[in-house]
């Protein structure tokens, strides 16, 4: 124990005499550890940590392919028959308008069956949760955030009646802080209420329920999947008109949380690892420099009987001081970095509120620090073995042996290679993001403002009230100076849900609903296509005369027309929905395709219905689209005030411009590209420092040679070229190795790129040139300084 303290004391004295080395090593290592620690917290929270529910590893989700919901009747059949799943719960989003307490506000929430909280095993912070005793839609459980923000944390909230979409709901409980369900879909749910389908539970024609459950004792995901496969086949046989080719997929509840972001996180984890490795290589190079100045001391210790174990303990003591200090400073850097990630991360990043520097994160950082201590502690005895005889026989203190020179060269080469890989990945992600921004969505984005208008409980839910309300609304907005046009649509393209339906084409009878063509559909006002800038390709768009009294009409997309009537004109053709009482509807126009879900998905066939004919869909929310002559964000107060003047009962919700919608859609590639750019810049800076340090030492170790050459007439240019030769060689080898590694990893990165090859020649060339330039500057500066030294003085120092 005394010997250990003595070693620590001697190590501290040694480092205090070499403050420059100690400071550079701590700062470099702190940067690498800080980035690694902050990102580990992100990675751990999203991918590794269990969800915040009781026995979360047992929770599963059951959905149809493409994460589609299921019908109420199918849910009940599976719930009654499944032995491998318990507490099966169905849920669907509900976003009512809260009135009667301040201004009207739309509150996102969730309808669920009565098993929800028994499934999750989470107790409320206040009051109780609903269960079998609450077979009614008239109770509600609030999130802690909603309770604090809307009701000021008033504990008298229990039993208070809230008006949601015009109906009174009694508050029975408040959930604990941070509780959210589901953790991936409808993540902004701020309350939960029992669900009761007003149309009954025996219909299969509409699918809107997401199903959650818990694995029963003795079952795992594979056995549950096997049972559900059998149940799906039985449902397909018993109800072929609705369930033909029905397939269910059972997977852990955590899977949808991370499925979309997992590839990006893995790429970023690889980038973080490279930054940390570059920082460690930099510190190892610094340690070699530090150890080379103590070569005579190390040789004397060996001559006096000191063994490798003694030198290793000396190195361990010094590395403990350096690494421990770097861990502390790196923890501070990590706290700043994690706060920056939390503030800049889009709301779609899962579990962002849970990210924190906690015990798990500290254990990771401490473990990495312990490993680095072991690695760095071997540098001192290794350096002592380089040129051992030369040091003892009076060789120059600044002359390095071939082993040390090779070690420095290899470290510099590795840093350049890793920096190139990161810079190339960052460049590819940036170019991919630019390509996504350039994707033609089919919509005119300039000057377009959108907003949701929920009118549930406002007095205009009835069909006979909707058309007059919409007419007044459009007339009011269109009369505003600077507004070019305004229109309505039930769900925005790229900004809302996708509603799909099967349909029948006249002359092409359908015998099975599963074989019928399907298309997404929108319900829109006249002027929508002109407002959005969607080109009319054939026929006409909707007119005011397309009302409930007129003949039923639709407008279809180019994709649907080409699939339904290839080589023919779609205008004048007729389709009808898959319903016994459905009437034939005439196609009066064909418009250009629009992307419905994302900028990377191909446009799907689409049908547009005129809202005046209100085709059997009773709206509770619509979206307003306004084409303005200036910045759409400047028009938000004006349009909102016009709406309040008409009816204060309909709130103006989530106003956004189309570029804002695009930005929300592109949050993941933007998030990945931004972090990779930060990592690449850090890697470039560290690599430049590493090359600079290696060249500085190389120039110092060749001071005598340079003095002789200068005395014999060599000019500065020749000396600079001589010194830079070693740096250029390391740079070229590093770039070559980096390109080989990048090419090998190209297929791994390809899934995250859009419109750009992982071997894109321009990006590869620019990245390689950038690394070469930075390395050349880092090598040139110490070479230039060494070439300016007085040869006489250099020779005198070497004597």
Biggest sheet overview: 12 strands, mixed
Query: Which ranges are low-confidence, i.e. pLDDT below 50, for 5 or more consecutive residues?
Result: 387-399
| Global shape | elongated
Proportion in β-strands: 15-25%
Question: How many E strands?
Answer: 23
* Percent of residues in helices: 40-55%
Question: How many H/I helices?
Answer: 25
Radius of gyration: 34 Å
- Average pLDDT, to the nearest integer? 82
From the N-terminal CA to the C-terminal CA, the straight-line distance is 43 Å
Instruction: Decide which structural class fits the backbone.
Output: alpha+beta
Commentary on this structure:
With 799 residues, the chain is α+β, with helices and mostly antiparallel strands. It is 50% helix and 15% strand. It has 25 helices and 23 strands. Strands 1, 2, 3, 4, 5, 6, 7, 8, 9, 10, 11 and 12 form a twelve-stranded mixed sheet that branches. It has a six-stranded mixed barrel with strand order 15-16-21-18-20-19. A hairpin with a 7-residue loop joins strand 19 and strand 20. Helix 2 (19-48) packs across helix 11 and helix 16 packs across helix 19. The protein is elongated, with a radius of gyration of 34 Å.
